[in-house]
Amino acid sequence: MDSSFSDRSSDSRPVSSCDREREVDIEIVRRLDQLWPDVSRPVAGEPAGLRMIGKYQLQRIVGGGSFGIVYLAIDTVLDRPVAIKLPRLEVLLDEAKRARFTQEAETAARLEHPGIVRVYEAGLAGPEPFIAMAYGDGPNLAEWMVANQHAHSWQALAALVAEIALAVDHAHQHGVLHRDLKPANILMVQRTAPVALQLQEELTSLGRLPMLTDFGLARFLGEEGGDTRSSVLLGTPLYVAPEQLVGAKARSRCLPTPAVDIYSLGVILFELLTDQTPLDGDDYLQVIESVRVQKPVRLRTLRPDFPKSLETICAKCLEKQPEHRYRTAAELAEDLERSVNDSSIEGRLPSVWQRAAVWLTAPQRIPWAGWYAIAWHAVVTLWMGLALAVVPLKVTLEPGEWFSLAFRYGYGLLFSFSLVFFLGWWTVKEKRWAIYCGFLLSLGKTLAYANAVFLKPLSFYAFTKVFEDVPAYSTADRFLFLVCIMLQTFFYGCAIAAQRKHGI
What we know:
Blueprint: H1 5-8, H2 17-35, E1 52-53, E2 56-64, E3 68-75, E4 80-87, H3 89-92, H4 95-109, E5 119-123, E6 130-134, H5 141-147, H6 154-173, E7 176-177, E8 186-189, H7 200-204, E9 209-212, E10 219-220, H8 229-234, H9 248-252, H10 259-274, H11 284-293, H12 299-302, H13 308-317, H14 329-340, H15 352-360, H16 365-389, H17 391-394, H18 399-428, H19 432-454, H20 464-467, H21 475-502
Antiparallel strand pairs: 1-2, 2-3, 3-4, 4-6, 5-6, 7-10, 8-9
Helix pairs in contact: 6-10, 6-14, 10-13, 13-14, 16-18, 16-21, 18-19, 19-21
């Protein structure tokens, strides 16, 4: 989130400790969402006062966000336009945010690719740090989509995403994850040398080519501690992968992988083709929940005229489980080329067995096991109590015999069912020892119930002979008990698999 997470919140279950952490994050987002209209933003075209930053003369504001403002400037030495990014005042006063600004410069500087905005210089040591970058003389992709709605074929739009994917793949090969891919962070500029495989003709029809920018939230492959909450606050979680929208506990177990950027590319592709995102919501909270748990709209539901291969590519990028997406952005670009050329694509959606394996080992199987054990033993406890109450109506018993039977029933309830309730509750709390103890107890009970049904019917009950003639306690009931305890063992087995897979 989980999702795994995707699946983690799709089931109805009580709130776990991991979910409580996530709810705290979401509550912060909700409150900031309410304050968002009051956040000031730079106005494009606003004059910069022609002040100097080093050798750069600022001309006007061309964009910005919550962490920095981007100016058009003139390099007075080389006499060329450049883009200068300056941090906001609150960034200068916050060490963590200032470090992020520094990391953006260092990250982008190590990438040299025609599809990535080039960093010329970074002045990070002075009182007013800045990043000097190549100036992109065009709108961002979000603005370009509005201006060019329905103006291009799906082949040209697929080629556009393939071009972006190859730039992303270049960053991945150099160990950099962008983590904030969205139309606002992609410039559409006049540049040459398209690199998208054999799709030059389609790209030429666009008139402009994409360039990635804003590596402020970038992380290195395998780097721990990647916090995606800033991405959610800065823009929109619509483009953020589900595994990045989970609680802090689950996020700490999840190292960033290329799959997070591939998901974002899938959302961008879907939006380019349909003019809407595959998931939506009225506010941050609804968007976050829809991204984490809802199934995305299928492409051909909105555009049945598009080829099946294109729908498969979109669906594969938008898979909730990272391992089911494309392994690399280059593979995504190659499949887009195949789809444009009406060839068979390599990407395949996960099989039923693969989806079943994900479901069985999802993190929510752990509380499921606990609640199942508690629920069915509670029902059995009630049933046995009712059966005990009607014994005098079915057979003739002396008062002492009935009280002896009641004592044995209470004894068994205290030492057997109470232990199940105890382990079940701590399994819901995701305690590792409870999961393993619950599995061993369930396995032992399964063997005992099987013995009672197939070898010595009911021999392990203290009140066997009394209940033998009770109609409510039939062979069907014994088989039902066996099936229930087998299901409990199965769920505890899934809980162990989930615990080992997700490190809970």
